[in-house]
Automatic annotation (TrEMBL):
The chain crosses the membrane at residues 12-30, 36-56, 68-89, 95-113. The lineage of its organism: Archaea, Methanobacteriati, Methanobacteriota, Stenosarchaea group, Halobacteria. It comes from the Archaea. Keywords: Membrane, Transmembrane, Transmembrane helix. This is Uncharacterized protein.
Length: 116
């Protein structure tokens, strides 16, 4: 399984989103600006969705029910729930979102670990 294949432009875009997220996160932490805090929360959801979509594109050598597909779906669902949690100010949705993102990252780590 080639986990590093994919569009270089897409990889650069996701890397830029992650770096931008950390820059805004640092600003929000330093200034406690509520708009910046909200932006980081929304950005986290968008990044989770983008990474999930990228992982889903990597499943070409695996079956439809593979661990990588579960991870990709979990990241996308977690990102969507994170955005919904921000908009609805729901701690239950935020918790579920965090669990799904954690599951997605865990699935990805498992696949990378098993492919070595």
């Amino acid at each position: 399984m080639d986990l590093h294949a994919g569009s270089p432009a897409r990889s650069r875009a996701v890397t830029a989103m992650i770096l931008s997220y950390f820059a805004v996160f640092a600003y929000a932490t330093a200034t406690n600006d509520p708009r910046a805090v909200t932006l980081t929360e929304l950005g986290f959801g968008v990044i989770a969705i983008a990474v999930g979509v990228m992982l889903y594109g990597q499943r070409s050598t695996a079956g439809p029910r593979s661990v990588l597909s579960v991870g990709a779906g979990s990241l996308v669902a977690g990102g969507l729930l994170n955005i919904a949690a921000v908009l609805a100010r729901s701690s239950a949705l935020e918790t579920l979102s965090s669990l799904l993102v954690f599951l997605g990252v865990g699935c990805y780590v498992y696949v990378v670990w098993r492919s070595r």
